[in-house]
From TrEMBL:
It comes from Ceratodon purpureus. Belongs to the leguminous lectin family. This is Legume lectin domain-containing protein. It comes from the Eukaryota. Residues 68-288 form the Legume lectin domain. The lineage of its organism: Eukaryota, Viridiplantae, Streptophyta, Embryophyta, Bryophyta. Keywords: Lectin, Signal. One of its GO terms (molecular function) is carbohydrate binding. Residues 1-26 form the signal peptide. The keyword Ligase does not apply.
Length: 297
């Protein structure tokens, strides 16, 4: 009888253990990955500017044709603007070990007007692929690509711990000879500051404007690495990943510590004055893949 009771007890213990494992597994279910792309340029994406400038967004973010592209510019002045996916994207799971790796790709052309001959790198300032805590551009100013307000001597965010922004910038105009900014044109990785943690000089400005620049961004959440590749081609050609060169390689980026779990993805820019030129983004792809990390977020 004692042996029988012991067997029953062992069965109960085993069942409870299985239930505990099942419960833990259920708690560790990863979210679904996302896949975002344009074209088409539709209501899934939204254009944002600071209402204080008094310009309708339809004059800042406009659809281009032949070929299809998002065209960024403003008729009268350089302004900050964003074009982002309107729904927040989950990048890490609170109270869980699950985190998202991501990949992004876009093609941009800094298209200078043939009438603008003052300098090769025309007005505006550049473009950044950005992960931000909100869609708002209010109070961000032009010197941070419309990302957040900064100390213009150091590039540090004035939002402190609430900045929650990671960006890959293509800077083609901002010149701070005695400040934080390296020689232009350059590509940089920005983590809650526009004083980039890693930069690469892109060379002769003449090779940057009036070209198609393909940019691939690959983030590995397990290794906490981010790598950025670029390939520049003529306007009538297509950038190819197999021909791209690495521009940025950085280790130590933990998105669970640097951005909100639900964040907005897309582009932020200091858009140029239309008489000088426009920025054209021909396409954009972004996708996430969930992996099980080593620590609880």
């Amino acid at each position: 009888m004692a042996s029988r009771n012991g067997s029953v007890l062992l069965c109960l213990v085993a069942i409870l253990a299985l239930l505990q494992i099942a419960s833990t597994s259920a708690a560790e279910t990863p979210p679904k990955g996302v896949s975002i792309a344009f074209p088409p340029l539709d209501k899934r994406f939204t254009c944002s500017v600071d209402p204080a400038i008094g310009v309708d967004t339809k004059f800042i973010c406009t659809p281009g044709t032949s070929p299809t592209a998002l065209v960024l510019s403003n008729d009268n002045d350089v302004v900050s603007a964003r074009y982002q996916y309107a729904t927040p994207v989950q990048l890490w799971k609170r109270g869980s070990k699950y985190v998202a790796s991501f990949s992004a790709y876009f093609t941009v052309n800094f298209d200078r007007s043939s009438e603008f001959t003052v300098r090769e790198l025309f007005s505006g300032g550049g473009l950044a692929f950005a992960i931000t805590p909100s869609l708002s551009v209010i109070g961000t100013g032009q010197e941070s690509f419309g990302l957040f307000p900064i100390d213009e001597k150091t590039g540090a965010s004035k939002n402190g711990a609430n900045t929650k922004t990671v960006a890959v910038e293509l800077d083609i105009s901002r010149i701070e000879p005695n400040g934080f900014d390296p020689q232009i044109p350059h590509i940089g990785l920005d983590i809650n500051s526009v004083k980039s943690v890693k930069t690469k000089y892109l060379g002769d400005p003449a090779t940057i404007i009036d070209s198609k620049i393909g940019v691939w961004i690959e983030y590995n959440a397990l290794k906490k690495t981010i790598q950025v590749y670029i390939h520049k081609v003529k306007v009538d050609q297509t950038p190819k990943r197999q021909n791209a060169n690495i521009a940025i390689s950085y280790t130590g980026l933990d998105l669970a510590k640097e951005v909100k779990d639900f964040s907005y993805v897309g582009f932020s820019s200091r858009v140029p004055e239309t008489p000088n030129g426009v920025y054209k983004i021909y396409d954009f792809k972004f996708s996430t893949t969930w992996v099980l990390g080593s620590t609880v977020n």
